[in-house]
Design brief:
Length: 440
């Protein structure tokens, strides 16, 4: 079927044979279908959506446009986790070692931060020497021997998605649930995993600001992943304020080290335990949620998670001394407090604004080719529900060497991000919904 006919059918809401979608994507990846036709197709999908067979064909064609790892010769279940992105969202750094310590392999291909959201690779690279660009053979070796390995996406993983995502970015077609779901899963399924736990964020710091949209995305991801033969579960979780307190690369690593030593913020710990429990259940090493939770909690308490992180860091060329002595991590030369201009109760925090403030301090990037400053970022001092006095610090800014904005401007952004009122206020639930079964 010619691209024109496919676009025409989608525009009119008529079904398209799955093979025609597969051919369209394959030819687009090979440069045989022009951007303008693919853009028109994406816009038609934006308005019309996709049927299940169409979506599977799209995802499968994107997945097979590049290399698909086969880890079946490595014994044991292989489970990964993916978050749709948030602020202070650092659970992957703890989950990989904790879940590996409990007997489930974690082959993790992660991304970099962009805009207000952080990325696992940038966080890991604040550990001196840590190499996220390993050859596939070494990645396999580390997954097999250590149990977890965290690397970046290569040009050979789902190249059709790379091209399509860039096109969507320029044509206002990013916010389409089928296009997001196929984009995420085409990359994740290329890792050779048996199962995937999705953390679909919702709230002011998330891609999805409204619960119905997040639920629709989570359900689509679960249905699509299962339709493609993988065990997939999703948690829809709160991103209406930063997760934990640290926002910024080395600060977040430090907070994970606290967590793995049995300390750290309660919300970060709770979400890590819940996501870890989902991963253990998908991996088949725990039968029930309470059992799975207990195993993750035990791996925190007895230090196995911490020791596994040391093993991962050593295997990937990092300086593991920083894990024992976090003061060796990159540190900002100056820390400046942001004082509240009024007293009261923190009623809300605009998490996206906090993420953008961290970016302005040098912790993030506005374009994918920008460099990040590992030491830059901020610590949230007052979270939703906390009392604050006038003049008390609501956040500490760790000033990077090349900030995008002067500290006074960032402080003003931060003050505007905190809504302080008469209260009472309390944070909403951390996990809003768990999605495992989806009717087809
Ligand atoms: N993340 C992705 O990987 N793809 C999308 O389309 C949106 C978010």
């Amino acid at each position: 079927m010619r691209p024109y006919e496919i676009i025409h059918r989608k525009r009119d809401g008529r079904p398209i044979p799955p093979e025609a979608i597969a051919e369209l994507v394959t030819r687009y990846a090979q440069g045989e279908v022009p951007d303008y036709q693919m853009a028109a197709f994406c816009m038609a999908v934006f308005f019309r959506g996709m049927s299940e067979p169409e979506l599977q064909a799209l995802t499968s064609a994107m997945l097979h446009s590049g290399d698909v790892l086969d880890l079946s010769d490595i014994p044991g279940p292989k489970i990964d986790k993916h978050s749709t992105g948030g602020v202070g969202d650092k659970t992957s750094l703890a989950l990989a070692p904790l879940v590996a310590a409990c007997g489930v392999k974690v082959p993790m291909v992660s991304g970099r931060g962009l805009g207000h959201t952080g990325g696992t690779l940038d966080k890991l690279e604040s550990i001196p020497g840590f190499d996220v660009r390993l050859p596939v053979a070494r990645f396999r070796e580390i997954v097999a021997s250590v149990g977890a390995c965290l690397v970046g996406q290569t040009d050979r993983i789902a190249p059709a998605d790379r091209k399509l995502y860039a096109l969507r970015d320029l044509t206002a077609t990013v916010e389409s649930i089928p296009l997001i779901a196929s984009s995420i899963l085409s990359k994740k399924l290329a890792e050779g995993i048996d199962g995937l736990v999705l953390d679909v964020k919702v709230g002011s710091g998330a891609f999805m600001k409204r619960l119905p949209d997040a639920l629709a995305l989570a359900r689509t991801l679960v249905r699509l992943g299962r339709g493609m033969g993988k065990d997939v579960a999703a948690l829809v979780t709160d991103m209406d304020q930063p997760l934990g307190r640290a926002v910024g690369n080395s600060l977040e690593v430090k907070e994970i080290l606290e967590l793995l030593r049995g300390q750290g913020p309660a919300d970060l710990r709770e979400l890590t335990v819940q996501l870890g429990a989902e991963m253990l259940q998908l991996g088949g090493v725990a039968a029930t949620v309470p059992e799975a939770r207990a195993r993750i909690e035990q791996a925190i308490l007895d230090g196995r998670g911490f020791r596994k992180l040391v093993e991962i860091v050593e295997a990937q060329g990092g300086d593991a001394r920083v894990l024992h002595d976090p003061d060796r991590l990159p540190r900002a030369a100056r820390v400046v407090e942001v004082a509240a201009t009024a007293g009261g109760v923190v009623e809300a925090i605009d998490a996206e604004a906090v993420g953008l403030a961290a970016m302005a301090l040098g912790a993030g990037r506005s374009r994918i080719e920008d460099a990040v400053d590992p030491a830059a970022g901020l610590e949230v001092r007052k979270k939703v529900g906390d009392r604050v006095e006038r003049g008390e610090s609501i956040a500490s800014m760790h000033l990077g060497e090349r900030p995008l904005e002067p500290p006074e401007a960032v402080a003003a952004r931060l003050r505007a991000a905190w809504r302080i009122g008469a209260g009472p206020a309390s944070p909403g639930p951390l996990v809003l919904q768990r999605i495992e079964e989806v009717e087809t």
